[in-house]
Design goal:
The complex is a heterodimer of chains A (about 325) and B (about 325).
Chain A: H1 3-30, H2 35-39, H3 47-56, H4 63-75, H5 89-124, H6 129-143, H7 146-160, H8 183-189, H9 193-230, H10 233-240, H11 245-283, H12 288-297, H13 301-329
Helix pairs in contact in A: 1-13, 5-6, 5-9, 5-11, 5-13, 6-9, 7-9, 7-11, 8-9, 9-11, 10-11, 11-12, 11-13, 12-13
Chain B: E1 3-16, E2 19-32, E3 36-40, H1 47-55, E4 63-71, E5 74-75, H2 81-87, E6 92-95, H3 99-102, H4 109-119, H5 126-139, H6 145-148, H7 158-169, E7 176-180, H8 188-205, E8 208-213, H9 216-222, E9 225-230, E10 233-239, H10 240-245, H11 250-257, E11 306-307, E12 313-314, H12 319-322
Helix pairs in contact in B: 4-5, 4-7, 5-7
The chains are: A mainly alpha (about 325), B alpha/beta (about 325).
Chain lengths: ~325, ~325
C-alpha cells in the first residue's frame, strides 16, 4: 500500500466520524433527564447555584452552539470535563481504557485460538458427526446472551467451585507499578508472577464470556472459508506434489482460508468493545464499558460523547487495519 | 516395452442422491515408459477421475472400490498412504488445466517450486532449492528465471503460468506426468509451445505422458496411442494413426465426424445425436447404444473390451463393421 493511498483511506474515515459525532451529540442531548438536576440531587443547592453550574458546564447555550463547541474542542483532543469526575474526560477515559483493551484482546485471542482449530477440523471432517456437532455447538455459542452466560460462569466457577474470583480485575491488596496499564504486562515487568497469576484468574471468566460467542461466530467463518478452499484446484495440485497432508492443510489451505477470517475478526473486535459494557458490568471489571454505562445513567454527556466517538474511531481503525492485513495475506490485492 | 503404469478393472464410485455413480467403471489401461497416451472423451466420461484414482487423489466421498493400479510393479491401492504420497510428485505428477487456479495465489512461484524439491529430499532447505528451482523455470522456457522466482502466480502471463505449473509438477523428476487438459485454457500459439515442451521432456527424460484432452487434433499430433472413453468406460484404444483412419467403435467414429477437416472445409459436420446416459441408471449393456446407428438388440447384453486388430481394443460387438 502506497503512502498516498494510505492517507486517502484515512481521509475517507473523516465523514464517518463527523456523522457519528452528530448522532452521538443529538442522541444524548435529546434524551430526557437534566444532568444538573442529577448532579445536584442529593445537595440542597439554590436555583442560583444550579444556574451557575449550568453556565459552568456550557449547558445554557443553544444546541447548535454546544455542538460547535464540542466539535471544535474534540478536534483539538479536548472533550471537556466529566460532569461527574470533575476531571478532563480524556483523562478519565485513558485511565479506564487499558482494562477494556486487555479484556477485549484476551477475548479475541481466546476466540481465535478456539475458532481456527475447530473451524479447520469441521471443514476437513466435513459432513461427518464432528462437523455437525461443531456446527450445533457454534449455533449455541452465537446465541449465548453475555449477561446470562457470565452469571452462570460466576455461579459455577466462582461461587460453587471457588476456582475464580467473582469479579474485579485484581485482588484488593495488589500493588504493582502501572507502566502500560495492562495488568498482565505490568505484573510481569515488576517480576511478580503471583500477581500475574492473580490478574490472569480475574481475566479468565470475563474473557470467556466475551470471547465465546465470537469464537462460535469465527469458527463458522473459518469452516466455510476452509471448506471452500479445500475444494480448490491449488489444494489438489499441492496434494499431487506429494507434500504432507498437514502442510497442505495448514500452509496451502489455511493461509488462503484466513483471508476472510481476518476481516471478520477485526470487525468483531470492534463489536467486542461494545459487548464489553455488559460483561464489564456483570464482572465488575473497571473498564471503559462500565464507565460508559455509569455515565449514561448520570447523563454525563461529555464522557459518553467522547467514549462513543472513541468506539467509532476504534471501529474505523480496525476496519482500516483489516484492509492492511488483507493486503499482506493476499498478494493479489494491492490497495 | 514394459509397462510403467498398468490399470486393470478400475472402478471409482461417487455416492450421489440418486445412488452410487461409477465415474470410472472397469477401466483398463497401460502406459509404457516414455510413451504418450492420449485420453479422449467428453466431460464426465471418466478421463480425469481415472487418473486422479491412479494418483490416489479422488476426493471423498468418492473412492476407488475395485481394480488394480500397478505402477512400476507396485500395486498402488495396497500402498500405505505415506508411501503413496512419497510417489506423488516424485514418480507421478499432475499438471492441471488452469494454472491460475492450480497455483496457490498466496505463495510465490519459487516457494511452490522449492517446496516440492524439499518434500522429496532433492534439497534440504528452500534456500538450498532455489538454484534448482531457477533451473527448472529456465528449462520450461521462462526468461530470467532466477528473478521470477519471487513473483506471485498472478504476476505471470497465462502461458508462463502454465509452463511454471508444469515446472512445479516436474520438480521431483517424475516418470509419469498426467496432464489434464494442459492446453485447453491457452490460445493456439501458446498451446503449441506447451505441447512442444511436453514432447521435449518426454524425448529427453523418458517421461511417460497421459495427455487428457477432448481435443482429438492434439492427440493426433502428439500421442502415439490413444484411448477413448465414454460414460466411465474405455470404448476404444490403439495406435492413434490407425484409430483415426479406421475407428473400431461407433463413438470414436462419431467424434471424428463431428470435427471439421482442413482438406474438406465444406463437409457438413455430423454431431452425435442424443445424450450421454445418466450414470446412475446405466445397465450392463453397451452405454452408447441409445445413440448408436449400428445398435442391435444384442447390444443390451454386457459388452467386453475385446481385441479389434493388432494392439487395438474395442468395446463394440460390431467393431469389424464400424470403419
Amino acid at each position: 500500500m502506497t503512502a498516498s493511498r494510505l492517507v486517502e483511506r484515512l481521509l475517507q474515515t473523516l465523514p464517518v466520524l463527523f456523522g457519528i459525532s452528530v448522532i452521538v451529540f443529538l442522541m444524548i442531548t435529546l434524551t430526557p433527564g437534566d444532568p444538573v438536576e442529577i448532579m445536584l440531587a442529593d445537595s440542597r443547592a439554590t436555583p442560583e447555584q444550579a444556574e451557575q453550574l449550568r453556565r459552568d458546564l456550557g449547558l445554557h447555550l443553544p444546541l447548535h452552539e454546544r455542538f460547535l463547541v464540542f466539535l471544535g474542542n474534540a478536534v483539538t483532543g479536548d472533550f471537556g470535563v466529566s460532569f461527574f469526575h470533575r476531571r478532563p474526560v480524556i483523562e478519565v477515559i485513558l485511565e479506564r481504557l487499558p482494562a477494556t483493551i486487555e479484556l477485549t484482546l484476551a477475548a479475541m485471542l481466546l476466540a481465535l485460538a478456539v475458532a481456527i482449530p475447530l473451524g479447520v477440523a469441521a471443514a476437513v471432517k466435513r459432513d461427518t458427526w464432528l462437523d455437525r456437532a461443531l456446527s450445533a455447538a457454534s449455533l449455541f455459542g452465537v446465541s449465548l446472551p453475555g449477561f446470562w452466560f457470565g452469571i452462570l460462569l460466576i455461579l459455577l466457577f466462582s461461587v460453587t467451585l471457588g476456582l475464580f474470583p467473582v469479579g474485579g480485575r485484581t485482588p484488593f491488596d495488589l500493588e504493582v507499578a502501572r507502566v502500560s496499564g495492562f495488568l498482565l504486562v505490568d505484573t510481569l515487568l515488576a517480576g511478580r508472577l503471583d500477581a500475574f497469576a492473580a490478574a490472569l484468574r480475574h481475566l479468565a471468566l470475563p474473557a470467556v464470556t466475551l470471547g465465546l460467542p465470537t469464537a462460535a461466530l469465527l469458527a463458522r467463518v473459518v469452516r466455510s472459508s476452509m471448506a471452500e478452499v479445500l475444494t480448490s484446484d491449488y489444494v489438489l495440485f499441492a496434494e499431487a506434489k506429494g507434500i504432507s497432508r498437514a502442510r497442505v492443510l495448514l500452509r496451502h489451505a489455511l493461509k488462503n482460508a484466513l483471508i476472510p477470517v481476518v476481516t471478520v475478526a477485526a470487525i468483531e473486535t470492534g463489536s467486542l468493545l461494545g459487548g464489553n459494557m455488559i460483561v464489564e458490568t456483570v464482572f465488575g471489571w473497571p473498564g471503559l464499558g462500565r464507565l460508559v454505562v455509569e455515565s449514561i445513567f448520570a447523563r454525563n454527556y461529555p464522557l459518553v460523547q467522547a467514549a462513543v466517538l472513541l468506539y467509532a474511531v476504534t471501529y474505523v481503525t480496525l476496519n482500516f487495519l483489516a484492509d492492511v492485513a488483507y493486503t499482506a495475506l493476499n498478494p493479489k490485492v494491492r490497495l | 516395452m514394459s509397462a510403467l503404469l498398468e490399470v486393470r478393472g478400475l472402478r471409482t464410485v461417487f455416492p450421489t442422491r440418486r445412488g452410487p455413480v461409477a465415474a470410472a467403471d472397469g477401466v483398463d489401461l497401460t502406459i509404457a515408459a516414455g510413451e504418450a497416451l492420449g485420453v479422449v472423451g467428453e466431460s464426465g466420461s471418466g478421463k480425469s477421475v481415472t487418473f486422479l484414482s491412479v494418483l490416489g487423489l479422488v476426493r471423498p466421498p468418492g473412492r476407488v472400490v475395485a481394480g488394480e493400479i500397478r505402477f512400476d510393479g507396485r500395486d498402488l491401492r495396497r500402498l500405505p498412504r505415506a508411501e503413496l504420497r512419497a510417489l506423488r510428485g516424485r514418480q507421478m505428477a499432475l499438471a492441471m488445466q488452469d494454472a491460475l487456479s492450480a497455483l496457490n495465489p498466496a505463495f510465490t512461484i519459487g516457494q511452490q517450486l522449492c517446496e516440492t524439491l524439499v518434500a522429496h529430499g532433492l534439497a534440504r532447505t528452500e534456500a538450498e532449492a532455489r538454484p534448482q528451482a531457477a533451473a527448472l523455470l529456465d528449462k520450461v522456457g521462462i526468461p530470467s528465471a532466477a528473478q521470477r522466482l519471487d513473483d506471485y502466480p498472478h504476476q505471470f502471463s497465462g502461458g508462463m503460468r502454465q509452463r511454471a505449473m508444469i515446472a512445479i509438477a516436474l520438480a521431483g523428476r517424475p516418470r509419469l506426468l498426467v496432464a489434464d487438459e494442459p492446453t485447453t485454457a491457452l490460445d493456439v500459439t501458446l498451446r503449441a509451445q506447451v505441447l512442444d515442451l511436453l514432447d521435449d521432456l518426454r524425448r529427453q527424460d523418458g517421461l511417460a505422458l497421459a495427455l487428457i484432452t477432448h481435443d482429438l487434433a492434439v492427440v493426433a499430433e502428439r500421442c502415439a496411442r490413444v484411448m477413448v472413453m465414454y460414460a466411465g468406460q474405455v470404448v476404444e484404444s490403439g495406435p492413434t494413426a490407425e484409430v483415426i483412419v479406421a475407428p473400431r467403435h461407433p463413438y470414436t467414429r462419431g467424434l471424428l465426424e463431428s470435427l471439421p477437416r482442413l482438406e474438406d472445409p465444406d463437409r457438413p459436420l455430423h454431431p452425435i445425436p442424443g445424450q450421454v446416459p445418466d450414470l446412475a441408471r446405466v445397465d450392463a449393456g453397451c452405454r452408447f447404444r441409445n445413440r448408436c446407428p449400428l445398435a442391435v438388440p444384442d447390444c443390451a447384453k454386457p459388452v467386453p473390451l475385446a481385441e479389434a486388430g493388432v494392439g487395438r481394443l474395442s468395446r463394440c460387438i460390431r467393431a469389424a463393421e464400424v470403419a
